[in-house]
Design brief:
Strand content of chain A: 15-25%
Largest interface: A-D, 65 and 64 residues
Oligomer: homotetramer
Largest sheet of chain A: 9 strands, mixed
CATH topology of the largest domain in chain A: Rossmann fold
Number of domains of chain A: 2
Number of strands of chain A: 19
Shape of chain A: elongated
């Protein structure tokens, strides 16, 4: 097996492979009697950088500008579909679209390539570990065809790491050729370690990750599945908070949404339902007290308009907890302090001290959002992700994710994206438009 | 003005009146050239009791069985529409359908009767009190025609009583003929006192209440507006909780819904989305500990099925707080202790003590439900309620609510319903079907 | 077997029975250690008539006022659940709620009574006839638990009658004890004939019908399943038509809805989405030409408001086709002439003759409505209908439907309802409120 | 005024300008006390071509690869907001999102730049022509803030061209500085002519087009507003057709969707609701008769699966009407022959000839889709489009559209896109995935 050496230390986008793909793809390259060109070659790539000057500089300095391999079917495949066994696993928190991807992977394996042995690993990485005694689920078109109508994951999930050697033992024992992992940052880490162990044992197992993050914060991936659905449903919470706020004199609606390190959901939902007056996200600092602080600004808003809506990403304002001790959840993530309840109390005691009656309604819709079925947009997106994951895996590619960049589905090496994170840029179009839509201005004292 | 003496002490259903209605109704009693009989007489009534034996017994003993006046237009009206001024006020918590009723009252007054002076009192009973300085809102078809598309109340609301004399001063000063009050039990109490003051001052003001209770617990009213919408949306929370529970080994979904004293929403939502394993409502006792207690039953359920969904009405299990001191909210209601957070902690510590990892997701969608626009069913229902309220008020009736009984819109005297409450019957069809749907059985130790 | 003689020729509401119910019901009549009274007796009835005077007259003249048996579980049952075989069949056009009823019947038979042999007959009455070769579908909780999320009928349906003797042969051959039929007027006719044949052959087979009519026009049934969902979705078509009409100068939106002989859907949808200017239903005559005719009124409306929305029930205006020959569909119903396309052309040629450019948009959403999943309200309603059908059948009752009257689920004899029809009353509350909401007035020339 | 000469004849992407922008933008370029870089320069561009080889070739041959100017606020603006008057007009067929764009343009003009004179032109280009007597609508935040909740266009629309000189007379008379046109291909043509006339008269009027096409077929624009909503709602029609088809033996569901020349909606909806067996779009040929023809394939499908769903774009199969005469609609578009009704009849007569009873249900939801409010995704998209249109216009740019390319909002010259059209590529990812999802294969005889 060939592992690409790193010739561009900054950005190596080449995809690892299990070996030469020698088998003719069973996919038909013809329509209405004419041959059509549906196969992608590994040399079909798209530029990562879009700025003409930067690209020209790279080229003029004799280098090749970085580009991503396009996802899609290959003319030659590595695995023999009639003998191939595949496994799917969904890890971490629920996210709209999990079932859609399971469905898409299974249908593509079954109908396009003729693979007949597809196994669902139950309850995330736990499913690989014998002591949990979770059964394996056999997957076929018959039992996945309608699952996209339901939220959640038919395989179930779990948080936290599991022993890597035991996991690979299981893959070996089951004789798996391709492992499809659907999960977030922790899963990318696990995938990387599984990959290492597979390589060390010299096994012919491909690991393909379909990145999952309801926060839309995966590095080098412009859009992740479930995000559109999450924004869509978040608007219902905003509407509710707005009507509750408007409904009473000096009413306040306070909503907490997902967003541990990145405020994409909160910022986008603010644009999708423009009833929000203050949006607080992890990327943008804010003070509570003082002339510019949230509490003063809130009081001013109430004086002018008699109601206010505040939208929080769960990771906002963590600076207020700096003195408290750090705890970790089973996935190894730092446990966030609850900024929602914190703010609720701060606001209430601020106005109590001023003897103002402030009806504050607190809404936390997170678990109603995560468990929903994907909307149409995400369903289409998941269809492509799942099918491209199959094309990549069966062609013998490994240690990669299916990404989306410059409006194209692409192959991104796991090491390029794991452990990094996309964030809302303060000067960017999204946040600027949020500022225009809310009129909140600066919330920091100089 | 004639106030009916009470000839049947158990159930006096006669409606108070401001005096004889002498003006011809402007509503046209004709269609396609033929006269049609659209007017109701005060003698058009429906039986309250449906059991033939009981009705026969009453009749055979020479008495008249109790019946409700049918709502609807009267041939003669009391007020002269060209001179009439009306006021609307919405009180207490938000509920789907408030705007629909405002709209319906305004359109009926304006188009059917030609009333041109309709005032919206802002922020509930506060709007009558000068010191709050809430402006009055002039209402006309142009500014209400689309309000049913939005949740909340365009008038706003507030909780808690206000001074009755000051309120009636305001009605006098504004020269109001009909006051339409949309509110719950507290509003019925206030209406009763306003009525008394009006009578004492010998004013010609009609007070018509459209009863509002998202809990559907008004005595002698079989169905209240907003309830169908509330159930509808509650199913989304149940779906979410179910998928979150299924999504992890030993996952638990815990949902808290409205229902202070009556579990109609929780029970009906359980039938509307049959993913619930345990429903807890104020009317049905349950234990936590012991062989039949919820915690044991929950553990058994997890052992068998690996996940569970629990649905709570907010008023369930208040016995667990008996030792704590009683507090009151601004409306004078006893502040309920938070059974949701209480149960969440009890469950978590129970399983922690057993060293079991139990992913519990807690969902409280109340403020997303209360502030929603009414669904089609409630919109139609509110249309009838609002129009019948107008017919009653303009005919000079007073001290009454628009009720719904045996599938008919009826007039119910305020004293007959205020301060009483409908509850889920343990042996009735609703709860029995809930028990069949959940299989939860008894949760009380003998 | 006892067939009730007719002692009240006008209204015999007694229910036929297969014989004495001798077996103890397995349903537990106890909660939290106390016995609760969940069983209904056949003598538990509710009055049909609600007018006190009429009821008193009947009683005073020494007669018993007509009443319906209440639906619900009986203490003693006729069939031995361990040996019982049941069949379900869905007939005629699709209607939201079919799957909900199938689900509810199966769950009740299985869990409450322990019945293990439940068969789904495919494609309506065709499924009984060998030559069609439709397989029977075995039904159990596992394969019905999620079907209510989907529209349509998992059993499929078909139109038109089938041979009765062959049908009963099939029931005999399969050894069916209870046949649950879900269908409309044609199905009631078929049920009646099947019942006669069963009695003639002296078989112990119960026939229970759950009446289906998206038009809500079943005689002696105040509400039928699927109607609420149909109204709900119809509002989307009205919104669309309204926006299309408003969108262009002199724009017209024309919508055709269900309603062969009764305009309940069109009238109720008009109240649920009050954007309609003209509603045309089978019960209310209208002219096209002349001073009061629709075309003149439409022109006046356009002159005043620049747009108009017209809502048609499919059975409206059939008088315009009187000269054409009568055709029948496979169910034996008269084929309606297409009033929608007829009106579309009439309107267009009327305004063309006046040289007016009239952008008319025609919307027929019928097949998007019929095939939808039931909404929450209908799901709860279907849950009760299905469970009550089981209680009735297993108690040995037959030749009856599960009806809904005065807000209660009741048993109604098939002969009392078959072949009759409920209609919108011109002077009633529904149509009067429609006239107020549309302002359309009379559309007939004197 | 400077009009860029064409230095790259193939692709001139430079944007015309009314002159030098000399006024400081009032938009604040600072957050939380730090300056942030929110302004775009005209030299901030993105590459159009993403293939590294092609870009390298261009650069290595000494040329500059084509790129689009990025949309967004400019540091200097051309118009003085305090004196600026703006006009908005919506043209052609309705499309979800029209109101969102109107709202976004008005809010941006008003709040970000302080423009106080914003006029809505009623009923499309008709609104400029005195003889139609359509009033102008004054637009301000108060009357647009909630319009995105409604479908349609508050301005109304109309089809067809109007006299260009009269139109520009109106702009002159009203003293308009920026004209925002929201419309499709016909509007691009009109914009081009209006632009020419403005230049000829040497007026300082900017013309900014926000391209509207529910078919998503605008050349050089990767995604147009309303498309996501249209796909979303189309899935409801597919579900309905599927359930109706499944509901009867040999049932067929036939749906006609939008798509005059491009099948993007039909193809994408097929992936969003994967119940379709045959998709027919303008870009892909199909036969009716013969071994590979649709009718034969349909018969085979019915034999195997007993039901089928067919989804049509309105522009598919126009070859079957070649002998008929060509007609034009008021917009000057060729009137398409109705392939939906044509196919319906062909299918029915084909199976009638074979004596098969085929229940075919025909669904045309087009006017329910076009008039809907935009979903969240489209609302966010429209927010950006409207605001970027304002930034461009106020900076003095003209003769351009706000486009979307490689995931960025960009400026595209009108001449570059008018009169051209994007189509579904037979070998591309979309159509290939459709073929996999439907399994329909070739429908053309060799």
């Amino acid at each position: 097996m060939h592992i690409h050496p790193t010739d561009n230390p900054d950005m190596d986008t080449r995809i690892d492979s299990l070996g030469e793909a020698k088998i003719e793809s069973p996919i038909i390259n013809e329509l209405n009697g004419s041959s059509i060109d549906i196969f992608k070659e590994d040399t079909d790539t798209i530029l990562i950088e879009l700025t003409p000057e930067k690209v020209a500089d790279t080229i003029n300095s004799g280098k090749t500008p970085a580009s991503f391999e396009l996802a899609g079917p290959r003319k030659k495949i590595f695995f023999d579909p009639s003998k191939l066994k595949c496994a799917l696993v969904t890890c971490g928190g629920l996210c709209p679209g999990l079932n859609n991807i399971i469905r898409s992977v299974v249908l593509e394996l079954y109908y396009s390539y003729g693979v007949r042995h597809i196994y669902g690993i139950r309850y995330g990485l736990q499913g690989f570990i014998p002591e949990y005694k979770h059964d394996v689920m056999e997957l076929s078109p018959a039992n996945v065809v309608d699952i996209h109508e339901m939220g959640g994951s038919i395989l179930g999930s779990s948080r936290g790491p599991q022993d890597i050697e035991t996991t690979v033992d299981c893959l070996e024992r089951m004789n798996i050729g391709i492992l499809f992992m659907i999960g977030g940052d922790g899963t990318l880490m696990a995938a990387s370690k599984i990959e290492d162990t597979i390589r060390r044992r010299d096994l012919k197992i491909s690991v393909i990750v379909i990145p999952k993050t309801i926060d839309n914060d995966i590095h080098m991936v412009s859009k992740s599945f479930g995000f559109d659905t999450a924004v869509d449903i978040s608007t219902e919470a905003i509407k509710g908070a707005h009507k509750e706020a408007e409904g009473y004199p000096n009413g306040i609606g306070l909503i907490k949404l997902m967003g541990r390190y990145s405020g994409f959901i909160a910022a986008t939902a603010t644009l999708a339902q423009q009833d929000v007056n203050f949006v607080l996200i992890p990327e943008i600092d804010f003070d509570l007290e003082g002339k510019n602080g949230l509490l003063t600004k809130l009081e001013e808003r109430l004086a002018q308009r008699k109601h206010a809506v505040i939208l929080l990403a769960e990771g906002a304002g963590q600076k207020f907890f700096e003195s408290r001790k750090i705890e970790y959840d089973p996935s190894g993530n730092i446990k966030l302090h609850d900024i929602g309840l914190f703010l609720k109390e701060k606001i209430q005691s601020y106005f109590e001290a001023k003897n103002m009656d402030i009806p504050l309604k607190y809404i936390d819709p997170s678990y109603m959002i995560r468990s929903l079925p994907a909307n149409s947009n995400d369903h289409v997106f998941c269809t492509f992700l799942g099918r491209d994951a199959v094309h990549a895996g069966i062609a013998g590619k490994t240690n990669m994710i299916i990404g989306f960049w410059n409006d194209h589905f692409v192959h991104v090496p796991v090491p390029m994206t794991a452990g990094k994170r996309k964030q809302v840029s303060p000067g960017g179009k999204l946040w600027q438009t949020v500022l225009e839509a809310t009129g909140q201005g600066s919330l920091v004292n100089s």
